[in-house]
Amino acid sequence: MLIGAHVREADPIDSAAERGADIVQMFLADPQGWKKPPAHPQAEQLRAGGLTVVVHSPYVVNVASLNNRIRIPSRKLVVQHAEAAATVGAIGLVVHGGHVTQGEDAAKGVENWRKFVERQAGEGGFAVPVLIENTAGGDNAMARHFDALARLWDAVGEFGVGFCLDTCHAFAAGEDLVDVVDRAKAITGRIDLVHLNNSRDEFGSARDRHANVDDGTIEPDALVAVCAAAGAPVVVETPAEGQAADIAFLRERLGS
């Protein structure tokens, strides 16, 4: 099982080595910006090396939005980041499920997702797999509660999109972690990546505040159980100073 971390440093190869990570997740551009990602200085090394890479799209992306000024550039940004992710040899591009605003019809957000992936499939697909991630809050979110996730997957699943399960997000959304893997797989048929994060807040809080594996409101054993059941690569998005310990703990408990 691949276990690693999200890093923000400019040198993901050294950052991974410092943490004992065999998979690294990174941004390729400003996570709060709309600019096309530049060429990564370590692209050739990352493609040729033994480190597994996954890319996270900017937080501003909202493919579901009914606002043209958000949805249209979001689509463009996802395509651009998938292309850039391919240049570093990434196994996938993580994209948040997004949301519509209060008073808008969530079904239209689902329809926007379908139109996007269907159109892209017709143009040859994405340069790397797009992994839709469940989110923590928002009453009009596409992938917060699993009933909403099921509606989204009914619309997009046939186009080969993948799924990224975030434990903090699920816990904050009020989804029980005991059987979360089975329920997610029943909907999506797959888990391609696990974001293994503890939560600083209580169950059902709708707050997306990550904690290190042994320093939150989720029992560490429950997090280990999610990893074991998912059988997918694991990335911790926890506070950087504790990531090496998080990875070592998981590796020891999972025998990886």
From TrEMBL:
<dbReference type="InterPro" id="IPR018246">
    <property type="entry name" value="AP_endonuc_F2_Zn_BS"/>
</dbReference>
<keyword id="KW-0378">Hydrolase</keyword>
<dbReference type="GO" id="GO:0008270">
    <property type="term" value="F:zinc ion binding"/>
</dbReference>
<dbReference type="InterPro" id="IPR013022">
    <property type="entry name" value="Xyl_isomerase-like_TIM-brl"/>
</dbReference>
<keyword id="KW-0227">DNA damage</keyword>
<keyword id="KW-0862">Zinc</keyword>
<dbReference type="GO" id="GO:0003906">
    <property type="term" value="F:DNA-(apurinic or apyrimidinic site) endonuclease activity"/>
</dbReference>
<keyword id="KW-0479">Metal-binding</keyword>
<protein>
    <submittedName>
        <fullName>Deoxyribonuclease-4</fullName>
    </submittedName>
</protein>
<dbReference type="InterPro" id="IPR001719">
    <property type="entry name" value="AP_endonuc_2"/>
</dbReference>
<comment type="similarity">
    <text>Belongs to the AP endonuclease 2 family.</text>
</comment>
<dbReference type="GO" id="GO:0006284">
    <property type="term" value="P:base-excision repair"/>
</dbReference>
<dbReference type="Pfam" id="PF01261">
    <property type="entry name" value="AP_endonuc_2"/>
</dbReference>
<keyword id="KW-0234">DNA repair</keyword>
<dbReference type="GO" id="GO:0008081">
    <property type="term" value="F:phosphoric diester hydrolase activity"/>
</dbReference>
<dbReference type="InterPro" id="IPR036237">
    <property type="entry name" value="Xyl_isomerase-like_sf"/>
</dbReference>
<dbReference type="GO" id="GO:0003677">
    <property type="term" value="F:DNA binding"/>
</dbReference>
<feature type="domain" description="Xylose isomerase-like TIM barrel">
    <location>
        <begin position="14"/>
        <end position="252"/>
    </location>
</feature>
